[in-house]
């Protein structure tokens, strides 16, 4: 029975070309619905690609991100120490040439509308209302004579250090830039793990939604084509041929949607990163090979999702009774 | 091909028709449809013989079991009990793929609504059953052109169905039904959607094909012209064959036909 079965399979085997022709013409004729199906794939794949490519882009701009985080942490510490700084004056002592982080820090606290800087060499004792809040020490060293001449005139007799506390004549200096503690590192690792789980969860949901929407669109296509399917079965099409038509259609959708989706996703992620970190930084150092790898993953995901989505509709189509084609009153 | 042909030969049960003059034999065929707890007896034990090369018309109101009988002799479904032999092969013993194989080669279908594949040209529609039968594409094209010429559409082989009139579409469907040199052509109300003149042309075409190719034509119809042209007319009612008669024995002016 089984050898005989395979002989039939061989004889009625359609050239893939014919199935392909049916698929392509079917898509062309029902372009509107095909585009809707395609959109489902494109959105799903674009979502996956944007997540993959943003993690890749992130690793490229990670220095920038860390610098920003450090700067923000320093500003946070300063505000915790001093309270609201807007409109206040801060004395600045340059113990060393400011590094990148310190420059960012200065730009941040002395941005228009925030605090005003006052260099030590320009310092002159003034009235009670106009006193500077505290002294900021760039670099690690504050000469004790500077401290002694200025500290009596500050609202808060506090020295804030941006690098180290090695030379601190005030005896109670505050260090803004702290190396991350063991606890912090642990917390960060934990957060990263949680983030990963969340991302995987969201991706799973997105994959499900995509698969269901493709499946639904294909089911519509099956219903639309019941007469065509029945006719083909009357003419001698095997169920496997009918299945193949739908799997091919779906895989083609997956391929096209995968290409478009991964391009959109990449573009979306790149533009988002470029807007927050600068076009030069993002586009100047695109990790081309890893991104191509991510595109391949997305393409595969699109095709696999489409094929999974086609299982049910293709089954429905292949089980369709050929006699349905003879019924005229539908 | 050899394995399947051998299998079909093995399935050719000696059905008391050694000469093979019967192309279809149905013996005590019953068909019961179950929907939930409700049983519908569509056929209640039908026995019939259809001879090779004849032109048989089947009449019957809707719900008479006509469509079920049609599906049965078209190898589209299997009987609940009883036997259906098509070309001496008991179709009940074929699995789904074998039924498809069988339909592909033995039976050509003509539908009331033509059922051409809208996305394909006339030629592609005609060659589709040939590619299902595994025929080489080049040979298929040649035969397709030949068949379209045979039905009088040699000039329109690359047109889409939507560019053709109803009569022309039905001609394409007839060419398609002939694609794999079937023994039987099964036509379901082939003239119902056509005007008088075009319907008449279609009937003449079918009669000519029957004479030239020796193909058996079975059609469900209420078309008087078609009934008059057929060799035998069979009435089905309530799942049973009520009457079989030759056109000469029938009074076509009776109420039944108007």
Backbone CA Rg of chain B: 18 Å
Q: End-to-end distance of chain A, in Å?
A: 37 Å
Count up the domains of chain A: 2
Number of domains of chain B: 1
* CATH arch. level architecture of chain B: 3-Layer(aba) Sandwich
Sum this structure up briefly.
The complex is a heterodimer of chains A (330) and B (258). Chain A is mainly alpha-helical.
Helices and strands in order:
The complex is a heterodimer of chains A (330) and B (258).
Chain A (H helix, E strand, L loop, with lengths): L1 H11 L3 H14 L1 H30 L1 H21 L6 E6 L5 H10 L6 E4 L15 E4 L5 H7 L8 E3 L12 E2 L6 H43 L1 H9 L4 H39 L1 H6 L3 H32 L11
Parallel strand pairs in A: 1-2, 1-3, 3-4, 4-5
Chain B lengths: L1 H10 L10 E14 L2 E14 L3 E5 L6 H8 L7 E6 L2 E2 L5 H11 E4 L11 H11 L4 H14 L15 H12 L6 E5 L7 H18 L2 E5 L3 H6 L2 E6 L2 E6 L13
Parallel strand pairs in B: 3-8, 3-9, 6-7, 7-8
Antiparallel strand pairs in B: 1-2, 1-4, 4-5, 9-10
Helix pairs in contact in B: 4-5, 4-6, 5-6, 6-7
